[in-house]
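FAQ

Q: What does a record look like?
A: Structure on top, sequence underneath. For example:
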């Protein structure tokens, strides 16, 4: 099952609850951080493509330097994605195949924007909240200015399109307790209806 949602929607909180319920959770953002951490599997290719200035002293991706490079040279963004996206996908597939459980959850922030993951999934679940709530949550959590949050949201699929494409939706306008109850209900539904389906 694929889990997604806009920035600040509550994807991580939903994924955490699935994990508490014993469901294997594979998070593509976590895989990306592991691939680009000290000694990560993608770092040799990144160093070859961008030079040692793209690395921190401990051999991890220098995210601030790469953000600046991508900002000043859009081709660099495509070059970095060409290294990372196939590696993230391959590791996601490996972990899905190794997952032990009735079903697994694959967390992909840009699930509908990057459609390569969709053939792996039996269903898609969107965590949703209204846009002002998204903005306030990200400003509070990350310390971003409103303009910065809106820019990130503008690069993602519009909310109404994400909802249109979802098989299932969790409404996260009411807080963590309500979110967890909805995850519990979805878990029960998936166990009853989707066991033995391909995840």
């Amino acid at each position: 099952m694929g889990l997604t949602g806009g920035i600040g929607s509550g994807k991580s909180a939903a994924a955490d609850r699935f994990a508490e319920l014993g469901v294997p959770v594979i998070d593509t953002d976590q895989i990306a951080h592991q691939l680009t951490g000290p000694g990560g599997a993608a770092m040799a290719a990144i160093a070859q493509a961008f030079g040692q200035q793209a690395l921190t002293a401990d051999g991890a991706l220098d995210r601030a330097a790469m953000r600046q490079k991508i900002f000043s040279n859009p081709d660099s963004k495509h070059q970095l994605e060409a290294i990372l996206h196939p590696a993230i996908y391959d590791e996601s597939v490996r972990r899905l195949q190794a997952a032990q459980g009735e079903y697994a959850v694959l967390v992909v922030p840009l699930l509908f924007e990057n459609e390569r993951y969709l053939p792996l999934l039996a269903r898609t679940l969107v965590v949703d909240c209204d846009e002002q709530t998204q903005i306030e949550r990200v400003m509070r959590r990350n310390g971003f200015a409103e303009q910065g949050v809106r820019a990130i949201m503008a690069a993602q699929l519009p909310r109404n399109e994400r909802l249109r494409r979802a098989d299932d939706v969790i409404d996260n306008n009411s807080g963590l307790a309500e979110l967890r109850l909805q995850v519990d209900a979805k878990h029960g539904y998936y166990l009853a209806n989707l066991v033995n389906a391909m995840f």
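Q: Is there anything notable about this one?
A: The mean pLDDT is 92.
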